[in-house]
Write a structure and sequence with these properties.
The structure is a single chain. Helix 5 links the parallel strand 5 and strand 6. The chain is globular. Helices cover 50% and strands 14% of the residues. The model has no long low-confidence stretch (mean pLDDT 93).
Length: 264
């Protein structure tokens, strides 16, 4: 009997945080994984760690900027050359500028959209033909609860993620016809290194107050949601947004006070 080809995933922003956790999730499920990241040094370190864990044959590191069409095309070509197929694309690469609307420059706004929204468009457009050659696949976009709910200092970030949510639906409608499912995970606050740097004790307390589970999520919890959406177990799920947020989006306004009164 001929052995079936190993399934292959491409994860953008894969050098750290959620992207790296997603890569590990795919590797644990037997996939080969390509990581695309603009940070060459951090990417090389991540590649070395993963290669130690699963062997170098299943890991490919690609340096590039997702907002650059030539970089993206080169990355997908490298995946095709190395692995011969692509089954899952995770558009995780993202940046943020947290400033008031009137202080956010046009260049800052444009750069956030270029990476967070245009990058997902470029990567999906480049990856879809390779997926189609293999009979289909799955795209999972990493948006944010900020794409579902407006909040302070997120005019660029929140707008980019709201656009990504609609891009998910647009691609699901068009690419579903050729066997490519497209879905979205919208994380709430997650305990990443970046969050630890920018979220003060007061901010973390505020988040705990408005999240019914009363805690931040972990990168592994987000990775589980992503890998499930990309798997055959979610074969009839297309065009959906999964808020992995501890109930933050569902909580509405005033719940912290109500919860305190309920517990009194």
């Amino acid at each position: 009997m001929t052995a079936q080809p190993r399934r292959v995933a491409l994860v953008t922003g894969g050098a750290r945080g959620i992207g790296l956790a997603v890569a590990r999730g795919f590797l644990a499920r037997g996939h080969a994984v390509a990581l695309l990241d603009i940070d060459a040094a951090t990417l090389a370190a991540a590649e070395a760690r993963l290669a130690d864990e699963v062997g170098p044959a299943r890991v490919l590191a690609l340096v590039g900027d997702v907002s650059s069409a030539p970089d993206v095309a080169q990355a997908v070509a490298a995946v095709a050359e190395r692995f011969g197929r692509l089954d899952a694309l995770v558009n995780n690469a993202g940046i943020a500028v947290f400033k008031p609307t009137l202080q956010t420059t046009h260049d800052e706004f444009s750069r956030v959209l270029a990476v967070n929204l245009h990058g997902a468009f470029l990567c999906t457009q480049a990856a879809a033909p390779l997926m189609q050659q293999g009979g289909g696949g799955a795209v999972v976009n990493i948006a944010s609860i900020s794409g579902l709910r407006a909040s302070t200092l997120r005019v660029a970030y929140g707008t980019s993620k709201a656009g990504l949510i609609h891009l998910t639906k647009q691609h699901a409608v068009e690419l579903g016809t050729v066997g490519i499912r497209v879905n979205c995970v919208a994380p709430g606050p997650v305990d990443t290194d970046m969050a630890k740097l920018v979220h003060s004790v007061a901010i973390r307390s505020d988040y705990h107050d408005v999240i019914p589970l009363n805690r931040y999520g972990t990168v592994d919890e987000i990775a589980e949601a992503v890998c499930w959406l990309a798997s055959p177990a979610a074969s009839y799920i297309n065009g959906q947004v999964l808020a992995a947020d501890g109930g933050f989006d569902a909580a509405g306004v005033g719940l912290p006070t109500l919860r305190r009164q309920q517990g009194a």
